[in-house]
Amino acid sequence: MADIVRYSCSWKRLLILLLSLTMIITLMPPSVFAENDSSTDITDSTNTSFSDVKSSDYFYSPVNWAVQNEITKGTTSTTFSPDQGCTRAQAITFSQVLNLV
After folding, report:
1. Which domain holds residue 58?
2. Whole-model pTM?
3. Within 13 Å of residue 3, how many CA atoms lie on the same side as its CB?
């Protein structure tokens, strides 16, 4: 009986994950998927002055792109706080800046 419950729960989790991903992709602006759009090119970003974002970090280019496109300014003028969670207010601000709301 326990195997049936575990099997049932794993399908529910998979369904929730798929529905969540579908919803996120649906809400993304078309510019995210645009080809040859210079505003979405994150490889040519300028250097930021965040002390907690190093050029070896996997998120270095996206952070620079977000700052360059005025999507974020960081948590302070010198820190980005990549390990800190995103608050509801920050999520709403991001979605407004990206025209998702």
Report:
1. 34-101
2. 0.50
3. 0
